[in-house]
Amino acid sequence: MLFSTEVTSSKINSDNPLYQRTLKAYHLVAPFIHGNVLEIGCGEGYGVELLYKNAAALTLIDKSPYTAETIKEKYPKATIIQERIPPLTQLKDNSFDVIVSFQVIEHIKDATLYLEEIRRVLKPSGKAYISTPNALKTIARNPWHYKEYTFENLSNLFEKTFSTYTIQAIKGNGKTDAYYEKNQKSVHRFLRYDVFKLEHKIPSWLLQIPYEIANRMNRKKLLSKNPDLVNSITLEDYSLTEHSEATLDFFCTLVK
Fold first, then answer.
1. Which tens digit of pLDDT belongs to each residue from 38-58?
2. Cα 19 to Cα 104: distance, rounded to the nearest angstrom
């Protein structure tokens, strides 16, 4: 499932708006990468280069065998751990200067343990950077997500574990707004066939395959009808700002 619509790909043209959006977080954190660095949930690994070149040592954790088999070939000096988290069973207390975990927390059932483990393996004064989509921007149930968060949800969650944190926002511009508006209209056309509202009634595992098929079809359709728009979206079309109604993803900094 590495190249499902849930794991945004750098290799599939129809994923470009989402790829640029998720890649933005890596570019935002790159200037702060130093020392011993951990990434939790590296996926395809398209952000690893930005971490690898500035870290004194880099550890990558992901549940996918692809990470261990493929990323290790490109980054032989990195430590690769394949496991489902939390907990972080192979990592010692006070080990890392920086932890990066983008688009992961929404997949975690025990988010409190996930954050406790991040705090445990951070060095004193170390920082963790987390991104996650804004729940208020969701237009259809994502069966791969255990929980999506609002600004208030995240604040309440973080304060249980970290006394110092900030929650900022990644937002788009007129170009990305045009794409997401077209996407929303297209998704709503799909959902009109769900007359019994099964989307919110059936178990998530039953929804995963239909969601994947419909989502991939939708992205391909958006590309075929709007090739210039889909292909023209770049990192520069996303920016870091204060949280507002325009927030697409939260960009969070947690300090131990």
1. 999 998 888 999 999 999 999
2. 15
Inter-CA distances, 125 with 22, 166, 170, 238, Å: 26, 14, 25, 29
Q: Is the pLDDT of residue 1 over 60?
A: no
What is the CA angle 62-24-150, rounded to 5?
A: 80
Identify the CATH class of 13-255.
alpha beta
**Is the Cα torsion angle 126, 6, 144, 138 positive or negative in sign?**
positive
Q: What is the pLDDT of residues 64-94, one digit of tens each?
A: 887 777 888 888 899 999 999 999 999 999 9
What is the spatial order of strands in the sheet that 239-241 belongs to? 79-82, 57-62, 36-40, 96-102, 122-133, 249-255, 164-171, 239-241
pLDDT digits (tens, 9 = 90+) for 205-225: 888 888 888 888 999 999 999
Q: What residue segments make up the domains of the chain, in order of their start? A: 13-255
First-residue to last-residue Cα distance in the chain = 34
* Beta strands 122-133; 249-255: pairing state: antiparallel
Joined together, the tokens standing for residue 171 give 């937002």
pTM, two decimals, is 0.93
